[in-house]
Amino acid sequence: MIGRIAGQLAYRATDHVLIDVRGVGYIVYVSDRVMAGLPANGTHVALYTDLLVREDNLQLFGFTTLVEKEWHRLLMSVQGIGAKASMAILGTIGADGVSRAIALGDWNAIAKAKGVGPKTAQRVAIELKDKAPSVMAMGGTMAEATGDALIEVDAPAPVQPTVAPRANPAQSEALSALGNLGYAPGDAASAVAEATGADPDLDTPALIRAALKLLAPKG
């Protein structure tokens, strides 16, 4: 399994890029969102990758964070969601958007992706709701790299993953705090997602307070 690839960005097409690693070119498929944030051709680039193995084809898909990569894997586990639909969802609302949409059961946000109908979007929201807390807590930083194989070009300076902002660490800290208070993972994730959506810049204490207000009994 190829877990991360780093090298020189040789060229980009509509839905994929070619990354040159020591003279070997790797075709990596990326979402519209990742494509828009890539640096200029000829510069170094690094992406987390997931390898899709088919009988007659091998395809690499590239992501800027581990959270995005994990959602890709989980999205493809849902009936009716293939690699193309998964990349469309991630390209439309991003990894953080997927986390919020699934935690909140907001299938309408998922259905905004090209090729994803309402019924499929509802299935995604229902089947993956219990997965949201653990994925939101991942963070997606370099320190959390997996044990997958690394393909990387020699370079004078460390190559960092491009573009996407790191997941807000306050989310995982708030989820942990709410769990310690006895709240169910699904309820905690929904509250954290809603609070984060209202104000993405909340620090951990403020996010916990906002989530607790949402979790408080109504009436």
The DSSP helix count reads 9
Sheet with most strands: strand arrangement? 1-2-3-5-4
CATH homologous superfamily of the largest domain?
Nucleic acid-binding proteins
Structural class: alpha/beta
Q: N-to-C SSE series?
A: EEEHEEHHHHHEHHH
CATH topology of the largest domain: OB fold (Dihydrolipoamide Acetyltransferase, E2P)
> Between the first and last Cα atoms, what is the distance in angstroms?
52 Å
Described by strand count, sense and barrel closure, the largest sheet is: 5 strands, mixed, barrel
Layout of strands and helices, then pairs:
Elements: E1 2-12, E2 16-21, E3 24-29, H1 32-37, E4 44-54, E5 57-63, H2 66-75, H3 83-104, H4 107-110, H5 118-127, H6 132-136, E6 149-152, H7 169-180, H8 185-198, H9 204-215
Parallel strand pairs: 1-6, 3-5
Antiparallel strand pairs: 1-2, 1-4, 2-3, 4-5
Name the descriptors.
single chain, 219 residues, alpha/beta, OB fold (Dihydrolipoamide Acetyltransferase, E2P), DNA polymerase, domain 1, Helicase, Ruva Protein, domain 3, 5-stranded mixed β-barrel, 9 helices, 21% strand, DNA damage, RuvA_C_sf, DNA repair, hydrolase activity
